[in-house]
Design a protein that fits this description.
The chain has about 190 residues and is α/β, with parallel strands linked by helices. The protein has one domain (about 1-180). The chain has helices spanning about 25-40, 50-55, 75-85, 115-120, 160-180; strands spanning about 1-5, 15-20, 45-50, 65-70, 90-95, 125-135, 145-155. The mean pLDDT is about 85.
């Protein structure tokens, strides 16, 4: 695994967002937490939101700080409020997949759903938004290399959804260009 870190802002909480393309995404996020975030600034707590049906199938995820969300239910608001409460403590990190579904790691355009904006509007402290594009390649090896490119997307105080969407989309395309050999596209 190769991690290209962004600079972290001190005395902030951290919303770690990433492309969601496999069940192993949580393993990649844990690596980022231990070898990236926690080395740069001590992280008090690391949390994640999982779909309720996934959490019921994989109860061990709760031991890793995961809690459930059930989209389109009454409890969804409670889950979003809980996430905002966690992010209102400086030093906490929260993992979120804003695509809302699994997609290929090679998609050229990342389309974010607006659910995380409801969380950010309720965060009481400064929160840094971080995006990581995770790209896996094998090339000539039998073992894959996982390249994790982190992007500082600003804070909840200067948040603009369209700007963040464009930054992430451009960053993801550049990350793919850096680590995938392919014929020039027209």
């Amino acid at each position: 695994m190769v991690l290209f870190m962004a600079d972290l802002k001190p005395n902030h909480s951290y919303l770690l967002m990433s492309n969601h393309f496999s069940f192993l995404d949580g393993v990649f996020a844990t690596y980022i937490w231990i070898y990236g975030l926690d080395k740069a600034t001590p992280i008090k707590g690391f949390y994640a939101m999982s779909l309720k049906q996934q959490l019921l199938k994989n109860k061990w995820l709760m031991w890793l700080g995961s809690f459930s969300i059930e989209p389109d239910s009454r409890s969804m608001v409670e889950s979003l409020n809980y996430a905002a409460e966690l992010l209102s403590t400086p030093g906490n990190a929260f993992l979120f997949y804003p695509q809302g579904e699994l997609e290929s790691q090679h998609v050229r355009n990342i389309l974010l759903k607006k659910g995380f904006t409801k969380i950010l509007s309720k965060v009481a402290c400064d929160c840094q938004l971080l995006w990581t594009s995770n790209i896996i390649e094998y090339f000539e090896s039998t073992k894959p290399t996982i390249n994790m490119h982190m992007l500082d997307c600003g804070t909840n105080k200067d948040f603009n959804f369209e700007d963040v969407q464009q930054k992430i989309d451009k960053h993801h395309q550049e990350s793919i260009q850096k680590h995938i050999r392919f014929t020039k596209e027209a």
